[in-house]
Amino acid sequence: MALPAHSPTLSDEPIIITAMRTLLSLLLAGLLLGLAGTYALWLHDNPPSHYLTDLRSDIEQLGGPAGRHGNLLSLNPALFPSDYSSPARLAHKLDSALLHARDNGLLTPQTVVVLPAQIGTWLLLSDEKPQVYAARSLREARPLLALNNPLKLLRSWWFSEAASLDELLLRMKAQQSADDYLELFAQLARKHALTLHAGSITLPEPRLIDGRIVTGHGELHDFGLSFAADGRILGPARSQTLLASSATPQTFEQVLGDDRLSTRGNGGSGPLVETVSLRRQHSTAAGVTVLRGRLWPLQTDRLQLQLTAASPDSHSKLLNFWIAP
How far apart are CA 141 and CA 15, in angstroms? Predict the structure, then answer.
């Protein structure tokens, strides 16, 4: 019995299979293009994040009555991820505390203001998605940070020997964070016309070249600068590998005009606390600095970085030490 003219034969099967494969390939290509387009739109869509922070600060005065020799003012700000959503917001938080100090007569041409170690590290959170600042932990925020910076993350992975995603996150926006750090704290010193020990920032292989911080791809360093009242960089940079800083903290001594400022970290895996000592003529003032608030700790295969001290409230703290005659 003859087969109907329209019935497929064995010789037609390769044609049918080829057509099905072509159709599936087109569907898969369309799906991938759609996903890529959606991802590209998501990357470019950066709605403003809701920002609410506590600008209050408490002042504690130590070290005797006010005198003509000036004072050492330790600013221990209470900082949260949303405070780092832009350098301007971080500047506003610090500026509010310094204005409070000025209103209480604590900012004079002889004042030296000291900020905590690692205050600049979380500048890497600048210009991220609002969901990042609402995250309850770094574990929750990590995928968003990676997805929002694919090329920067890939570049860091390619050029460095980072052993974990957390370390890549520290490296991926290093140059941008370094530029923000320099501009933010130089402007803060100029605005209030004071000598500013600007705390530190974690950067890979940082160097100070012609007044600019240039980052590389080598080891992570705890890097910090001090600024004069006109925004100039004072003295050499403070720089120590992060591993060495955690294991055996080094004492740094800087000449700030006629003053000598010494800083030393506590090391270990707890919150980073720096002991600060200012020598002026024959007198000395000493204090401590520590980041407060709810910033996330970082732990990698090669380092553990606890950036903040737990605090029962969200107020920043200003510790003032008058320099005795």
Answer: 50
